[in-house]
Design a protein that fits this description.
Blueprint (H helix, E strand, L loop, with lengths): L1 E2 L2 E2 L4 E2 L6 E4 L6 H31 L6 H30 L3 E3 H34 L4 H4 L2 H27 L3 E2 L1 E4 L6 H7 L5 H34 L4 H27 L6 H25 L2 H14 L3 E8 L7 E8 L4
Parallel strand pairs: 4-7
Antiparallel strand pairs: 1-2, 3-6, 4-5, 8-9
Length: 343
């Protein structure tokens, strides 16, 4: 095989130290590579900035020290880790043209991607439960969703996701690859690695279907059940204003659920490999990028917290009038401008 002017001897091997993967990423021209680099960098910066703003607000503003924003902070931390697992390597490929990645780095990227993707599914489920308690048991909300309960809900989400990702990664690490294998995606994706392997993957493919049911379908069913109860409670509210206000408290979370499960379910459809890459890009970037926008633009608490932080850190300028007497003249008013505290 000739690749980038270098001859590569390709043979099957179980020696991981000899295995190297070639990430195909996106086929573009030189100009297209620059556009891709700028676009991915912009998306990455938006994700980092938006989610760091959410984390900062939740940590600094006491009014946001509630269960809802505790889970939102977890989600923002997760989104930063999530995109950092995949996008920097794509930026490196677009900048340098170096598509190779070692076996260890590839397996590590696969594990982290599965870990963070599964955690997001579980966290969205816990956030649905939080919204269910807030709407259906408003008088007991603060009592039920105590700090201890929130930690008890969030911590298992991370632990279960880590355990599930470990199982899948162990299966993949047991597969046989060429010492130089092509991965037809922009990162070491599970589906692309299975295709690149020359082992019998029948059992693994069946296991992935069952695993998808437990990690994806069951959490989605719990989310839908929560919202059935929420909608039923909302419909019993007599005031249309009350119904609209109550539903708006759930709209941001519901939007993220639709985006996450809509993009993830699309990956299970049968598409061409080029379409798979585009769908994977949407799955990796869409929710982390839109999460802070949805929660900031549609949430009065976040907007007021942003205003409070900005007010406290912007120098206050006070405009005042003061009265003086000038000999030979009547009362004279002068306009003064003073910054800070005036005594």
């Amino acid at each position: 095989m000739y690749l980038s002017g270098h001859k590569m001897d390709v043979e099957l091997t179980n020696d991981t130290s000899q295995i190297e993967f070639y990430i195909l990423a996106f086929s573009t021209s030189e100009n297209g590579r620059i556009v891709l680099l700028i676009s991915v960098l912009l998306i990455y910066l938006i994700v980092l900035t938006g989610n760091l703003v959410i984390i900062t607000l939740v940590c600094l503003v006491p009014q946001l020290h509630t269960s809802m924003y505790f889970f939102l902070c977890n989600l923002s931390i997760l989104d930063i880790l999530y995109v950092t697992t995949t996008l920097p390597k794509l930026l490196h490929i677009s900048h340098t043209g170096d598509h190779t990645v070692s076996y260890t780095a590839c397996i590590a990227q696969l594990y982290l991607f599965l870990f963070f993707a599964d955690t997001e599914s579980f966290l969205l489920t816990t956030m649905a439960f939080d919204r269910y308690v807030a709407v259906c048991f408003p008088l007991h909300y603060s009592l039920i969703m105590s700090k201890r309960v929130c930690i008890s809900l969030a911590l298992p989400a991370w632990i279960m996701a880590a355990f599930n990702a470990s199982i899948l990664t162990c299966f993949v690490s047991g597969l046989t690859f060429f010492n130089f294998s092509k991965v037809n995606n922009f990162f070491c994706d599970l589906k692309a690695l299975i295709i690149a392997s020359f082992s019998d993957t029948t059992f693994l493919r069946k296991f992935i279907v069952l695993d998808g049911m437990s990690v994806g379908a069951i959490p989605l069913l719990l989310v839908l059940t929560s919202y059935v109860c929420i909608i039923y409670t909302i419909l019993k509210i007599q005031s249309s204003v009350g119904r609209r206000k109550t539903f708006s408290s759930c709209s941001s979370h519901l939007t993220m659920v639709v985006l996450y499960y809509g993009s993830s379910l699309s990956l299970y459809m049968q598409y061409s490999q080029e379409q798979d890459k585009l769908l994977s890009m949407m799955f990796v970037t869409l929710v982390p990028m839109l999460n802070p926008l949805v929660y900031s633009l549609r949430n009065k608490d976040i907007l007021s917290a942003m205003k409070k932080i900005m007010t406290e850190h912007v120098p206050h300028t006070e405009l005042f009038f003061f009265h003086t007497s000038v000999p030979g003249l009547s009362t004279n008013w002068r306009l003064g401008l003073q910054s800070g505290v005036y005594t």
